[in-house]
Amino acid sequence: MTPYTQRVSATRRRWGAGTTIVLALIAAAVVCIVSGILPRADAGALGARIAPVLGFVVAITIVAELARDAAVFDVVAQRLARWGRGRVVLLWVAVVALAVVSTVFLSLDTTAVIVTPVVVVLAQSVGIPPLPFALVTVWLANTASLALPVSNLTNLLAARAIGDDPVSFLALSWAPTLVGVLVPVLILTLRHRRTLFTTYRPPSGGAVSDRILFWGASGVLLVLMPVLALTHDVWIPATAAAIVLIVLFGIRRRHVLRLSLVPWQAIGLATALFVLVETAHATGILDVLAVLATEGHTIPELLRLSAAGALAANAVNNLPAYLILEPAAGDPVALMALLIGVNLGPLVTPWASLATLLWHHRVVSLGVEIRWGSLMLWGAIVAVPTVLAATLVLALVAG
Question: Any residues with CB less than 8 A from the CB of 245 and at least 6 apart, and which?
């Protein structure tokens, strides 16, 4: 193969169907803005709303990627394996805790893209079937992402309407999040009990190649996570953390700093969806959904919103599902019910959550066999009781 054909082949591999779809959506969004279908005032208001949200996504992605390059997640996984003391069930509990913490403080995409391969490789290295560990990371990436505004892009969009600070958000989200963690973990534990109640040989662990990078990145994460839980404008501390790590890597390992650290495709997709859904609202196309608007906090009304969110997320993806249904949720409790649907519900179809698609690419590349038919079936088995129970506890917490 000549150098030219090698370059063409590499370009084709990078230019997949996903890239084509994203570019088509971006083109449609540009047409809506340039043609005036989306009024200029609405476009300006949308830009002011989403700029801090997308800024956070970029910053936290850079932080997570550089922390991975500093071996932070590898060392944590090795420590968890040693703390398991050869008992798979203890390692299981530790991995669940890692996935929850990663999702809550560093967002669901961090868990799907960065934590998943670390956990899968760890399971393979100690001779444990990796499938249950791969499944628990992707399901918790979605279902544990209700906890804080920073946990999910949908939360960031709803945060200001729910309260002036993360504490107001957490006051409504903590109980549904607990359900979102316990139900999937319980079902997976029962389903894979023969694997989980066995033993393994703890790994010896390896040395960190650059201790300055490791401790620097670890320190940034330890400071950043509680700050994100207490700050409303989360893009500010996330950006500061990203800058610190960029400077540190610029000194110690400059070749790691690359433009691909920025999630261009995800940002393009999110921006296009924001514009297209806002255009649909501005032109009245989605006015028919006004029938879903809630007038109270009764259990049937909250269930109607959460079920609509879950169904829409599995039909088109959780981000546009939230944007489409947001006007129907007129107060903080209703918004939380909608978030339950779009965060805890998208476990069935492959496209319901971007995190699931990113996760699938990673685990398949590591040799884990994923059958979509079985995954969708078990996703439905998990999603239905999770959304139902989370909505019920929200009604209880909200009074």
Answer: 62, 63, 66, 67, 216, 217, 220
Model pTM score = 0.84
Strand partners, 87: 199
The pLDDT score that the predictor gives to residue 228 is 84
Exposed/middle/buried for 220, CB within 10 Å: 0-12, 13-18, 19+? buried
- Residue 4's pLDDT is what? 40
Closest CA to 199 of 276, 363, 88: 88
Domain coverage including residue 389: 19-398
Number of domains, the chain: 1
Contacts of 308 (CB under 8 A, 6+ apart): 292, 325, 328, 338, 341
Contact 46, 92 (CB under 8 A): no
| 3-class DSSP state of 225 | helix
- The answer to whether the CB of 344 falls within 8 A of the CB of 390 is yes
Q: Is 71 exposed, middle or buried (0-12, 13-18, 19+ CB in 10 A)?
A: buried
Residue 10 lies in a domain: no
Identify whether the C-beta of residue 67 lies closer than 8 Å to the C-beta of residue 217.
yes
Specify the range with the lowest mean pLDDT, choosing from 13-27, 49-63, 223-237, 317-331: 13-27
Residue 190 included in any domain: yes
pLDDT of 278 above 90 = no
Alpha carbon distance 113, 263 (integer Å): 12
Distance CA 392, CA 118 (A): 35
Of 81-95, 149-163, 183-197, 291-305, the poorest mean pLDDT is in 291-305
* Average pLDDT of span 74-87: 85
Query: Does residue 8 surpass a pLDDT of 70?
Result: no
The answer as to whether 182 is a domain residue is yes
